[in-house]
């Protein structure tokens, strides 16, 4: 299984990565390493993919699979049994966090002390309506101690949006104007940059981008914009067995 390891200076006891669509059990059009149970794929194949994921990564527990609905709801997994959420926080070694995407942003957060992690699913609606802020408010860590990694997602060149999206963002986040380019009466939106702008406004200086586009990397990653009936990659963050820095 090939994975995209996070390119950020997280503490040694924290691992974050994104899976690819390669080396799994799912058949076309979900071929082959689909992690999403909600997209019409054969359930048995998805569960095989998830089992393979746990074994190959030697995860300390079952990932905390969320029912993502583009909300701004964040849960602390040790305290709240609800999994209808688009962000999760953990301070326990037993609960790997996971986000499913096929163009949206997977945003992984950790503190420099290596004691708290969070995972955020941010499409444009969640991003515009405060999913990042809601997550940071529930974290115990000071924003100045938080690092962020933005995993594979659709890039600006491939993400055309209408005036509604532009107005929604620029009204709430005036600085987000730099994340839009006009094209043929519409806009090309740079969601990873807009997320970085929001994170920076909350005091997070260490923001790292994967730079991988889900739409362009058609052999490695799923893209809903490219093919509506498709699978989902998983982006995970968890506490490994390495000693803290």
From TrEMBL:
Keyword Metal-binding: yes
InterPro entries in the record: Cu_polyphenol_OxRdtase, Cu_polyphenol_OxRdtase_sf, Cytotoxic_necrot_fac-like_cat
Any one GO MF annotation of this record: hydrolase activity
One Pfam family linked to the record: Cu-oxidase_4
Superkingdom to which the source organism belongs: Bacteria
Cited CDD domains: YfiH
Catalytic activity as recorded in UniProt: S-methyl-5'-thioadenosine + phosphate = 5-(methylsulfanyl)-alpha-D-ribose 1-phosphate + adenine; adenosine + phosphate = alpha-D-ribose 1-phosphate + adenine; adenosine + H2O + H(+) = inosine + NH4(+); inosine + phosphate = alpha-D-ribose 1-phosphate + hypoxanthine
Keywords: Hydrolase, Metal-binding, Transferase, Zinc
Family of this protein: Belongs to the purine nucleoside phosphorylase YfiH/LACC1 family.
PANTHER family, sorted: PURINE NUCLEOSIDE PHOSPHORYLASE LACC1 (PTHR30616:SF2), UNCHARACTERIZED PROTEIN YFIH (PTHR30616)
Name of this protein: Purine nucleoside phosphorylase
Species of provenance: Fluoribacter dumoffii
Species classification: Bacteria, Pseudomonadati, Pseudomonadota, Gammaproteobacteria, Legionellales
Gene designation per UniProt: yfiH
